[in-house]
Amino acid sequence: xxxxxxxxxxxxxxxxxxxxxxxxxxxxxxxxxxxxxxxxxxxxxxxxxxxxxxxxxxxxxxxxxxxxxxxxxxxxxxxxxxxxxxxxxxxxxxxxxxxxxxxxxxxxxxxxxxxxxxxxxxxxxxxxxxxxxxxxxxxxxxxxxxxxxxxxxxxxxxxxxxxxxxxxxxxxxxxxxxxxxxxxxxxxxxxxxxxxxxxxxxxxxxxxxxxxxxxxxxxxxxxxxxxxxxxxxxxxxxxxxxxxxxxxxxxxxxxxxxxxxxxxxxxxxxxxxxxxxxxxxxxxxxxxxxxxxxxxxxxxxxxxxxxxxxxxxxxxxxxxxxxxxxxxxxxxxxxxxxxxxxxxxxxxxxxxxxxxxxxxxxxxxxxxxxxxxxxxxxxxxxxxxxxxxxxxxxxxxxxxxxxxxxxxxxxxxxxxxxxxxxxxxxxxxxxxxxxxxxxxxxxxxxxxxxxxxxxxxxxxxxxxxxxxxxxxxxxxxxxxxxxxxxxxxxxxxxxxxxxxxxxxxxxxxxxxxxxxxxxxxxxxxxxxxxxx
Length: 532
Ligand code: GLN
Hints:
Blueprint: E1 5-11, H1 19-31, E2 37-43, H2 55-58, E3 62-63, E4 69-70, H3 73-81, E5 90-92, H4 93-105, H5 116-134, E6 139-144, H6 154-165, E7 170-177, E8 180-181, E9 186-187, H7 190-201, E10 208-213, H8 219-229, E11 236-240, H9 248-254, H10 257-265, H11 274-284, E12 288-295, H12 305-317, E13 321-328, H13 329-335, E14 346-349, H14 358-370, E15 375-378, H15 380-392, E16 399-401, E17 409-414, E18 429-437, H16 442-447, E19 451-458, E20 460-462, H17 467-472, E21 475-481, E22 486-492, E23 498-501, H18 516-525
Parallel strand pairs: 1-6, 1-7, 2-5, 2-6, 7-10, 10-11, 12-13, 12-14, 14-15, 15-23, 16-17
Antiparallel strand pairs: 3-4, 8-9, 17-20, 18-19, 18-21, 21-22, 22-23
The structure holds glutamine.
């Protein structure tokens, strides 16, 4: 019988070390050994999913094809592995408890006293093992969010310990930090020692220690960590800062991490394939595009992390780097001076919610249209480009979205099926939907197909009562979903690139395989032909 292997990635010292990138890189290396690999993220918080969390604090909500509102690490896994994941690849404490409590209410535990061990831990183990079996994986890499020592993650770590105890093939990787003291310039190993001790206290002996640091760890430091952590010297892997996250697999590979996997998981045939061709290109690039990202959640770059990557993937394809300046829409609204946008090769408006900053975004959408600056609007950026066009081209002075106002001309309105909904979590129009593209449009040339499938996360849409008026004034709606009921793409003629989409194109971009709307956007921003 096929028996999947499990790699468990835990974190020590502090959060925000880039465990997600290390997890993705390990999975990538194993995938390059011709294995069927996937990743799972455990989030030890009580939210059922990330959908209700503030992107300014927790980063972007990543949407899967099946409509999961997930932790942003799922996006990293997809981009590295080039595969689409499901909401089942992200489990939270909220989900685990919800399902155990539901079973208890149904009487499924037959009078037992329901406890963390074994009922919660069994639920966790079942989800991990079932996913690996259902997908017939060779390896499932499971990343546990949070830091060892947190109360929240204990049941998950205990479940991992039990999976090993029950005889599954497992390998534990502990990610820690080796800080450098500025004054003496010395690499400190004590936090790593302590966090490994904490892990062993709960019954887990790590097999590999991946140490985040500013510079590559030297052999002395590695030996010291190996001694204290009770692992072989070669099992201490330096994961130092890289110029791009896509270089991390190389950093790990150069330290022979594959040999450690091979010892555990039999012979492995490794081949870089296309991956290194692309990362090598990265080193030679000397041209840069400047993109203005106008939005509301601009204080944290992780709020739009998939957009950052989609731009990077697309720019790399035409041998450019991309510099993204996040511009606070509220500031544009206050200052009423948009001339700073002239400094950019392109303007991108990402998804967003609520009134704050919306007038700034509307003016930016106008400015791009009037000044021939390439514009890409995503979701909110699609809806507010519609409002801008209604007001300033169609002369509907009081046009707006009903999300933001109670306007005379509701050119963007609530989806009919959203009107009766009063719960926030998981109730938007979510996930992948089929989109039909109209022939002889720019969008059709761009995608070169009649149907695309893209992911969504919205409650509002273009109000098609205004469609004829918009078309009379030159706006082209070039794609629709649900038998024409929802507009999905708008485009303008006689503009270098004015393109906006109701769907989240950024969630479909993979490293080495950029999403088409992003590719055309960066081409236009670089002054290249968009091939259409
Ligand atoms: N707030 C808008 C809506 O709900 C746009 C959502 C988004 O940009 N993701 O439809």
